[in-house]
Amino acid sequence: MIQIDQNDFSFFSFLKEEDLNRLKEITTKKYFNKDEILFYKGDEPKYLHLLIKGIAKLYTYDHKDNEVVIHNLMAPSLIAEIVNYEDLKFPANCSFETKAEVLLIDYEKFKTEFLLKPEISMFFIKSLTRKIKALESFINYNISSNSLEKIAKFLIDNESILINLKQVKIAQLLNITPETFSRKLAKLKKEKIIQNEKGYIKILNHEKLKACFNN
């Protein structure tokens, strides 16, 4: 059995110690590789999924069998918790963009023992509210910001996982053409703000990079 670390439950730090201990008892931890599937569209939700490391991708296919990405989730985050809460089937597939770690919480036991607790109800509401705000921020930022600002902010906000993200994937996440993305990276590299080798990016000058979107 994979050992669950105390830090894995930082998302539930508001719980009392006895509740936190019980939550650990009904939880298992699983490691996933890039492109591995967490669940498929139409599956019944047996677990409440808490992404604690990595990036998850919710996606489906259009009538031409083209992949359509609905949402990218970055740790820490609950994955499709509304499905559990509303007792629905998963409306999309979920796989991983990077190596990832997920806590699988037995939802029937969680529902019986935890869901009626006011702090847990508020936890769900806050999680859904954060997703709505993130979506609003994403829309507003994509409308008002130029490509260099979007790239700079993404690199700062996600520095810890850059080693797992190829440049083409970042361009896809930011909805920027690969050509535009390459030109902006070349500019940042020329100014010695970043370093990019073998398709991966490393930040060399954080202050100059932050200045790209704070001006």
TrEMBL record:
Domain Cyclic nucleotide-binding: 11-131
BP terms from Gene Ontology: regulation of DNA-templated transcription
Domain of life, per lineage: Bacteria
Residue stretches in coiled coil: none
Keyword Transcription regulation: yes
Keyword DNA-binding set for record: yes
Keywords: DNA-binding, Transcription, Transcription regulation
UniProt-recorded Gene Ontology molecular function terms: DNA binding
Pfam family, one: HTH_Crp_2
Residue ranges annotated for the HTH crp-type domain, each copy included: 145-207
Name of the protein in its database record: Crp/Fnr family transcriptional regulator
